[in-house]
């Protein structure tokens, strides 16, 4: 399908065009966990491009309305989900709150920031889902605060089996706007990668912790996993 007609392909195209996502199977990046990865993803770059962030906001609103129904509130996950979540909440005319990675060490020691009295259910906005650990940590914090989590949306997901199992176990419906498989499809269509690159890229997603390539020069450091 043409990227102009398929929102998931269109967002994948945007991410590649603005270099929010970079693919480098021959010279992989190294995540903070030590995993070697042929992909680097920094969706915060989408905020610097008004047409891209507008399209993402519109797709988030569409998915929330059709997959979850109108919630009482929108929550953004720190830090990448805060700006996008606030844009979505503004579009929907809903209250907004955000979730820190950990509770503050001073003051009220909040992990969830916002007025929790203005609604009882929430849809969570993320920029990126990898292992799902940080995303589900935010869900747990919202539930502990007494809120019902209707679901989560993200710009991008790697689609790891372990993450999908974790979301299922936590009973959280997660809906990414685009994912790794769709991104590879769009990258191949656009000539960003070739057929020869696909085996290594496919093997990485199957087992990212064990994946590696032949030794290469100094590797770049990715900022988020």
Write structural notes for this entry.
There is one protein chain. The protein has one domain (7-22, 39-204): 3-Layer(aba) Sandwich (Rossmann fold), CATH 3.40.50. Helix 1 (7-17) packs across helix 6 and helix 2 (50-68) crosses helix 3 (80-92). The chain has a six-stranded mixed beta sheet, with helices on both faces. Strands 1-4 form a two-stranded antiparallel ribbon. Strands 2-3 form a two-stranded antiparallel sheet. The protein is of the alpha/beta class. The model is unreliable at 214-225 (pLDDT under 50). Helix content is 37%, strand content 20%. The longest helix is centred in the first third of the chain and has 19 residues, at 50-68. It contains seven helices and ten strands.
């Amino acid at each position: 399908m043409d990227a102009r007609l398929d929102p998931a392909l269109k967002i994948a195209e945007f991410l590649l065009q603005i270099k929010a996502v970079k693919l480098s199977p021959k010279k992989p990046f190294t995540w903070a966990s030590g995993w070697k990865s042929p992909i680097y993803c920094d969706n915060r770059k989408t905020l610097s491009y008004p047409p891209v962030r507008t399209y993402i906001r519109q797709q988030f609103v569409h998915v929330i309305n059709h997959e979850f129904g109108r919630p009482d509130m929108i929550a953004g996950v720190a830090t990448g989900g805060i700006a996008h979540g606030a844009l979505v909440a503004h579009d929907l005319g809903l209250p907004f709150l955000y979730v820190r990675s950990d509770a503050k060490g001073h003051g009220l020691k909040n992990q969830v920031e916002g007025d929790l009295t203005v609604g009882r259910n929430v849809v969570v906005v993320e920029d990126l889902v990898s292992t799902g650990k940080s995303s589900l940590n935010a869900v747990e914090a919202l539930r502990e605060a007494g809120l019902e989590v209707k679901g989560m949306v993200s710009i991008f997901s790697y689609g790891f089996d372990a993450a999908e199992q974790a979301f299922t176990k936590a009973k959280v419906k997660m809906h990414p706007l685009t994912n790794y498989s769709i991104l590879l499809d769009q990258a191949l269509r656009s000539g960003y990668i070739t057929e020869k690159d696909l085996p290594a890229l496919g093997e990485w997603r199957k087992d990212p912790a064990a994946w590696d390539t032949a030794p290469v020069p100094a590797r770049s450091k990715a900022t988020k996993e």
